[in-house]
């Protein structure tokens, strides 16, 4: 019997959509029954995992698939979160909430209580900001690109703090309607994965990979590299904005301090851990990162102990950092590199 690799990219359309439908049905079934299987704490952690999957998969599109070392996610997540909050909060609530300065009339009066349209608008606003940003950003490459996009995240945070008429300044926004239920978040994560996967393995995705591998060669072969990078940047920003909206709704309150570079750093750890350019790597990296942080949480509790080892505040991050360091030493390209998990799966053919 011959061993054959499972390759979704070479399957017929019927078989491909059949597998997608089967995976979707299984995941939706899990979303439906999991509230009856797990306690509230576990469900909250799973909801956080789904949000970070949305952010990691979309961030991997620009950083891993297209190969552009961008450090902007915290800025787009913040935009999505604030747009969602401003649209979902009623004028009466905003009038009572703004303490530093009165909100601008258009900020106070906008009100769209429909969660679906609110998330779409949040994503579109983030994508439009990405389009505007693409013109100056993609004039540089490499480390310079990282510096420019890093600055964008700082600018957004400073803008939110210094414009209380729009964002309520450093006090942030609270009482955000909690429309983002566990099922809603999980379903949005599933849609994000399916859409991004189909982009990656389309002609646009092949152009993105060509830019990643050798931008000058791609340009010489007729690939419009600026358009390709801008498309990846906007798509990534759209889903990061949607993820920010879900994050705002699930937490119920937001402030500029939640959208520091640490958020980008966490997402960077996730996609590097899973493998730059690997969608399944981004998903599994999220599970390992968020799950690992929760499993190690008792290490921060001073009352916890196993024999001579006692919990110390901050010990969790030390242990987790050592684990990540060990993984990176033995898997330089992450767990999956630029491949998908099914590229390593083989089945026997008679």
TrEMBL record:
Membrane topology: Multi-pass membrane protein
GO-annotated cellular components: plasma membrane
Lineage of producing organism: Bacteria, Pseudomonadati, Campylobacterota, Epsilonproteobacteria, Nautiliales
Keywords from the UniProt entry: Cell membrane, Membrane, Transmembrane, Transmembrane helix
Protein name: Abc transport system permease protein
InterPro entries listed in its UniProt record: ABC_transp_permease, LivM-like
TM stretches of this protein: 12-35, 41-62, 74-90, 110-137, 144-161, 181-200, 267-291, 311-331
Cell compartment(s), UniProt: Cell membrane
Major localization listed first in the record, in broad terms: membrane
Organism: Nautilia profundicola (strain ATCC BAA-1463 / DSM 18972 / AmH)
GO terms of molecular function: branched-chain amino acid transmembrane transporter activity
């Amino acid at each position: 019997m011959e061993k054959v690799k499972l390759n979704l990219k070479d399957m017929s359309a019927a078989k491909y959509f059949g597998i997608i439908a089967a995976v979707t049905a299984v995941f939706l079934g899990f979303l439906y029954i999991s509230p009856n299987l797990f306690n509230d704490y576990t469900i909250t952690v799973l909801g956080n995992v789904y949000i970070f999957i949305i952010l990691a998969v979309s961030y991997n599109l620009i950083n891993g698939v297209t190969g552009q070392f961008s450090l902007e996610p915290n800025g787009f997540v913040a935009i999505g979160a604030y747009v969602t909050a401003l649209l979902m909060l009623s004028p009466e609530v905003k009038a009572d909430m703004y303490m530093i300065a009165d909100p601008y009339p258009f900020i106070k009066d906008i009100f769209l209580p429909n969660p679906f349209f609110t998330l779409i608008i949040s994503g579109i606003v983030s994508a439009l900001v990405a389009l505007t940003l693409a013109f100056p950003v993609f004039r540089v490459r490499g480390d310079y690109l990282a510096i420019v996009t890093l600055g964008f995240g700082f600018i957004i945070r400073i803008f939110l703090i210094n414009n209380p008429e729009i964002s309520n300044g450093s006090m942030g926004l609270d009482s955000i309607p909690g429309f983002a239920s566990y099922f809603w978040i999980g379903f949005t994560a599933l849609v994000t994965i399916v859409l991004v996967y189909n982009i990656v393995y389309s002609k646009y995705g092949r152009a993105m990979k060509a830019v990643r591998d050798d931008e000058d060669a791609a340009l010489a072969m007729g690939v419009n590299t600026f358009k390709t990078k801008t498309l990846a940047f906007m798509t990534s920003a759209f889903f990061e904005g949607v993820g920010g909206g879900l994050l705002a709704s699930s937490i119920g309150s937001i402030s500029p301090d939640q959208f520091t570079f640490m958020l980008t750093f966490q997402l960077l750890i996730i996609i590097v851990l899973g493998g730059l350019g690997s969608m399944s790597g981004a998903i599994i990296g999220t599970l390992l990162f968020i799950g690992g942080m929760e499993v190690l949480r008792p290490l921060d509790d001073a009352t916890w102990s196993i024999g001579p080892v006692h919990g110390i505040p901050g010990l969790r991050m030390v242990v987790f950092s050592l684990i990540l360091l060990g993984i990176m030493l033995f898997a330089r390209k992450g767990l999956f590199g630029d491949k998908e998990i099914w590229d390593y799966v083989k089945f026997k053919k008679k």
